[in-house]
């Protein structure tokens, strides 16, 4: 994986595993007044090394990305704060992107949570209908 190629083998394996399996990441965007804002998100790390996130329409993170696409993404902590994985990159909100219930990897990763919290993939997709695609530029682990 190009994104983790600079890491020693053990750190690379840990980072790649966490990118595929962690349920929560913290997405940081920047408001127009310069204030960084971090919010928890569900995410899918894809084979092309981009990250797919879904948002409710009208949320601040979408407005922030429209004004300034630079973001950071940190995976939720592990026991005792070890094994930190943090990414820097850019985000976009592509029009016409597949809905969450149409992305097999996303549906599979979050099947239990979607069923428990929203009742069905379709209900989740109707509420979280805006796609965010993150292109990581740098990974710290």
Automatic annotation (TrEMBL):
UniProt enzyme class: oxidoreductase
GO cellular component terms given for this protein: cytosol
GO terms of molecular function: coenzyme F420 binding; oxidoreductase activity, acting on the CH-CH group of donors
Keywords: Oxidoreductase
Annotated Pyridoxamine 5'-phosphate oxidase N-terminal domain residues: 13-114
Xref: Pfam families: PNPOx_N (PF01243)
E.C. code: 1.-.-.-
Domain of life per record: Bacteria
Gene3D superfamilies membership: Electron Transport, Fmn-binding Protein, Chain A (2.30.110.10)
Coiled coil segments of this chain: none
NCBIfam families named in the record: Rv3369 (TIGR03667)
Protein's UniProt name: TIGR03667 family PPOX class F420-dependent oxidoreductase
């Amino acid at each position: 994986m190009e994104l983790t190629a600079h890491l020693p083998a053990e750190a690379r394996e840990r980072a790649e595993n966490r990118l595929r399996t962690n349920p929560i990441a913290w997405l940081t965007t920047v408001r127009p007044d310069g204030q960084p804002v971090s919010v928890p998100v569900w995410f899918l790390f894809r084979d092309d090394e981009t990250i797919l996130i879904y948002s409710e329409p009208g949320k601040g993170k979408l407005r922030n990305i429209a004004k300034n696409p630079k973001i950071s993404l940190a995976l939720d902590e592990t026991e005792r704060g070890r094994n930190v994985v943090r990414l820097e990159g850019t985000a976009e909100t592509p029009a016409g992107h597949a809905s969450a219930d149409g992305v097999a990897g996303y549906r599979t990763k979050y099947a239990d949570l979607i069923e428990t919290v929203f009742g069905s993939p379709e209900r989740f997709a109707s509420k979280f209908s805006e796609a965010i695609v993150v292109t990581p530029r740098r990974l710290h682990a």
